[in-house]
Amino acid sequence: MEGLTLYIIIGIIALVIIYVLLTLNKLIKLNNKVKEAFATMDVYLKKRWDLIPNLVETVKGYAKHESETLESIIAARNNYAKLSTSEKLSSNEEISSSLTKLFALAESYPDLKANKNFLDLSKQLTAVEDEIAHSRKYYNGSVRQYNNQIEMIPSNIVALIFGFKSKAMFEASEEEKQSIKVDL
Predict the structure, then answer these.
(1) What is the DSSP letter of 61?
(2) How many helices (H) and strands (E) in the chain?
């Protein structure tokens, strides 16, 4: 009887160890998926940042007295590489706001709006923004799966023991949530 009890205890311990290892592997896999999703989004954000100096230079020729707007965009771009992951997510709000100001500025200059270089850069930026939107969706889906795994019972116990923490989703800023006014 004691031998049977020992086998049952060893079996239970083995099952717990197997469960912990399987859960740990799943958490690592999901964490890596979040990192990969962010890296993908980061590539597109960098593409956007790389287009900005060309766009700013094009606008500068038409709007010399708007240097404050242009300088803030370039300053934000130059700091991007030094930022942490969470800071990169929040800096997106700053650049989106700056780009909105830049395109509003372009509305004041009909010659600029007709400039071939400006139009080409605007199209490229639109394409990159679409890619960013798709990568945000993928990133948020990856974060949702990861956060679900570390918050749901019983895998949350393994996550707590091994120090897995929730990740922030990429959310639109309050400015981006506002409806756009269209004057025709």
Answers:
(1) T
(2) 7, 0
d(CA 141, CA 65): 43
Task: Determine, yes or no, domain membership for 176.
Answer: no
Q: Residue 184 falls within a domain, yes or no? A: no
> What are phi and psi for residue 135, nearest 5 degrees?
-70, -30
| 125-134 as b/e: b if 16+ CB within 10 A | beebeebbee
Domain count, the chain: 1
The position carrying tokens 């990159």 is 128
Please report whether residue 38 resides in a domain: yes
Range of 48's domain?
2-167
Please report the beta strands in 114-172, taking only residues with DSSP state E, as ranges in sequence order: none
pTM tops 0.90, yes or no: no
Q: Model confidence over 9-51: pLDDT tens digits?
A: 999 999 999 999 999 999 999 999 999 999 999 999 888 888 8
Q: Is residue 69 part of a domain?
A: yes
